[in-house]
Structure formats: C-alpha cells, structure tokens
Design brief:
single chain; alpha/beta; Aminopeptidase; 20% strand; globular
Length: 219
C-alpha cells in the first residue's frame, strides 16, 4: 500500500501548441515513476476555466494527495521554470471554449496571491547542484492564463501544498525524455522537503506542545 499520493497534471493542446509538451512530459514521468512508496496519479487538464473549477476540488477531495504538481507549457520558456505563487486577478484571455471569467478573477474575495509552502529557490538550487542536464529557474509570474488560474485554485484548496512547473515546447531545447527526467527529480526533491518540514514540525511539537490534534497545526 502506497503511503504517499502525488498528483501530477499536464494540459491539453491549445492555441499554437498542437502538442502540449506539459502532458507529454507528465506521461514520460508516469513511465519513469517516482519511488515505490509513492503513488503517482496523473491527469490531463482541459484548457478551460470552468472545467478547472470543476476538476480541482474533486482531485483534492477524492485523492487527499500529499502534493499536487501542475505542469504547463510556456512558449517563452527556455528553462524548466518553478513557479512560486499563483495570482487571483487579471484573467482576460479566452480559453479553448472562448470563455473567460466575467470577474477576471479565480475567487471573489480571495487573496491576490498565494504562495506555495515549498521554497522554489531551494528546490531549484538542489536540482541545479544535482546536474541532471536540464536548466531549472524560478519565477513569480505564472502568466495569468489557465496555468496561473489552475495553480491559484490548487494552492487555495491544498493550503499551499501545490507546485507549478512551466516547461518549454518540445525540442526547444529539451526532449520529452529530458523533461520527464527533470520532473522526476523535481517532484522527488519537493517530497523530500515536505517530509523534512514535517519531521521538524513534529520535533518542535514533541518538545513544546501537549495538544492532541498536532497534525492540524498547518491549516
């Protein structure tokens, strides 16, 4: 029985991206796997605001994942880019159904920006040091389209236990195998960090805290 569940999503094709490298990379990650203690669930997300609104709550609720990592393509990216935060406002671009939210935001009255609990600079440094042959960088602007929208919703639903990775289009410069390998290293590093945080928290609590429900301190 796997004791950790991780969900990794890619997006369907849209616009000039007839093949979406994010979903290709996620399928490659699925083929590679993580480690045997981790249950990996992958899915392809429609490039539609309303579909994302329906899909994300069910992903978080049904699977109760430890971590959700969303992967998207950026035509501007030349590196594999770790996004630190998701934004609530500024959604003016039409989706694959020619729809955009009338409010131009994800959640009425939601915070403007939500940060991941993961320190993307630390993840980036660790991956760079491991020298996997793929350049990784960090960004604080996921682009105000379906990527950013999905990330914000996921961060909100998962209390920050979410991550977003932008990948370049295939061959610019990385192959699907390169991207799959990079995702594998990134997700493993993120899981390691979450474990570390948890053991430090538990250590702190064991010293200072006699409450029962100790595991609820992070909500």
């Amino acid at each position: 029985m796997a004791n950790k569940k991780v969900i990794v999503t890619g997006f369907e094709p849209f616009g000039e991206h007839a093949v979406n490298s994010s979903w290709v990379a996620v399928q490659e990650l699925e083929r590679l796997g993580l480690d045997e203690a981790v249950e990996l669930y992958v899915c392809e997300v429609p490039v539609e605001y309303q579909a994302v609104q329906r899909l994300l709550p069910s992903l978080w609720k049904e699977h109760q994942p430890k971590l959700v990592v969303h992967v998207g393509v950026s035509g501007l990216a030349t590196t594999v880019t770790l996004e630190q935060c998701g934004h609530n406002k500024g959604y003016k671009r039409l989706d694959n159904c020619s729809f955009c939210p009338a409010s131009q935001c994800c959640m009425e009255n939601g915070p403007d920006c939500i940060n991941s609990v993961l320190d993307m600079d630390a993840v980036c440094k660790s991956i760079t040091d491991s020298d996997i042959g793929v350049t990784v960088s960090v960004s604080k602007d996921a682009g105000r389209y379906l990527c950013d929208y999905t990330y914000y919703m996921s961060l909100y639903l998962g209390h920050g236990r979410s991550a977003f990775v932008h990948v370049p289009p295939l061959g610019k410069p990385y192959s699907s195998q390169d991207l799959g390998r990079a995702l594998q290293a990134i997700v493993q590093e993120m899981l390691k960090m979450l474990e570390l945080d948890r053991s430090e928290d538990e250590h702190k609590h064991s010293k200072h805290c006699s409450h029962e429900n100790q595991h609820q301190h992070d909500h």
